[in-house]
């Protein structure tokens, strides 16, 4: 089973922050890191999951309504009276570039299922190639048309199609979105192992995020493998490595 850090080490540290990513890269045996990107009002690519900033920052409103300068003023509670800021993807590349060139993978989820950010596909591909890390990147999205755009821009791009059920992921894949991996919810494995032979299936999970306390429970990875899951995006990868 291949282990990915979901939004970094997001159980013990604020999700999608430089700290969460820094903690992840120090884990031996980690396959990769997953993160989410959106665009600010002035077109900057930032790393953030929710369409609204309310849940994880001291701000209120849609992320897309903030300029980069305005986002910089928002704070993410990191505990012990410390704060984090919403990072740009360039800042994350500054941190991860060396690791990516040494074999670490990065799953970039384009958060455009609700707001189809114009031009985001071209922006992120340009950044990836400028850094020379294109061989270490997986692009994913719930929005199949965005994945089609990625593939048209970069025919060599590695793509994972997101959905709740693995059957719906497969349907999108066969519909021509260009995906070469399936990214279902772990409880959405509604196809037999025989139907998934030879496929990369990276499962995502709901679950506790910082600052929730760890549950102390562990997934049975063998049972997940028996369902055809090859990779898992986990909030607490350090427990499994």
Question: How would you describe the overall organization of this protein?
Answer:
With 241 residues, the chain is of the alpha/beta class. The chain is built from seven helices and eleven strands. The chain has helices spanning 18-25, 68-71, 89-100, 120-131, 144-153, 166-177, 221-226; strands spanning 2-6, 32-39, 45-47, 76-77, 83-84, 105-110, 137-141, 158-162, 181-183, 200-204, 231-234. The chain has an eight-stranded parallel β-barrel, surrounded by five helices. Helix 1 (18-25) packs parallel to helix 3 (89-100). The longest helix is centred in the middle third of the chain and has 12 residues, at 89-100. 44% of the residues are buried. The mean pLDDT is 96.
Quick overview of this protein structure:
With 241 residues, the protein is α/β, with parallel strands linked by helices. Helices cover 27% and strands 20% of the residues.
List descriptors.
two-stranded antiparallel ribbon; 241 residues; eight-stranded parallel barrel
Please give the number of β-strands.
11
User: What helical percentage do the residues reach?
Assistant: 25-40%
So how many helices? 7
Q: Quick one: biggest sheet?
A: 8 strands, parallel, barrel
Rg, Å, rounded: 17 Å
- Tell me the structural class: alpha/beta
Question: What's the pLDDT, averaged over the residues?
Answer: 96
User: Widest sheet: strand order?
Assistant: 1-2-6-7-8-9-10-11
Q: What portion of residues belong to β-strands?
A: 15-25%
Uncertain regions: pLDDT < 50 for 5+ in a row? none
Q: Gap between N and C termini, in Å?
A: 11 Å
- Secondary-structure element series: EHEEHEEHEHEHEHEEHE
State the shape: globular
């Amino acid at each position: 089973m291949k282990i990915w850090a979901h939004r970094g080490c997001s159980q013990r540290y604020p999700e999608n922050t430089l700290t969460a990513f820094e903690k992840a890269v120090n884990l031996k045996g980690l396959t990769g890191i997953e993160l989410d990107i959106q665009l600010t009002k002035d077109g900057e690519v930032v790393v953030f999951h929710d369409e609204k900033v309310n849940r994880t920052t001291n701000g209120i409103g849609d992320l897309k309504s903030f300029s980069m300068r305005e986002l910089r003023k928002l704070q993410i509670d990191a505990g012990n009276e410390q704060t984090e800021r919403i990072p740009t993807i360039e800042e994350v590349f500054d941190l991860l570039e060396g690791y990516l060139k040494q074999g670490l993978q990065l799953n970039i989820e384009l958060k455009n299922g609700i707001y189809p950010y114009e031009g985001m596909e071209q922006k992120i591909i340009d950044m990836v190639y400028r850094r020379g890390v294109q061989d270490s990147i997986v692009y994913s999205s719930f929005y199949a048309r965005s994945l089609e755009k990625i593939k048209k821009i970069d025919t060599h791009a590695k793509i994972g199609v997101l959905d709740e059920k693995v059957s719906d992921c497969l349907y999108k894949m066969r519909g021509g979105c260009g995906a070469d991996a399936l990214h279902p919810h772990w409880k959405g494995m509604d196809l037999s192992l025989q139907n998934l032979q030879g496929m990369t299936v990276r499962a995502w999970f709901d679950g506790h995020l910082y600052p929730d306390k760890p549950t102390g429970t562990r997934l049975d990875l063998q049972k997940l493998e028996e369902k055809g899951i090859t990779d898992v995006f986990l909030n607490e990868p350090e427990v499994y490595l």
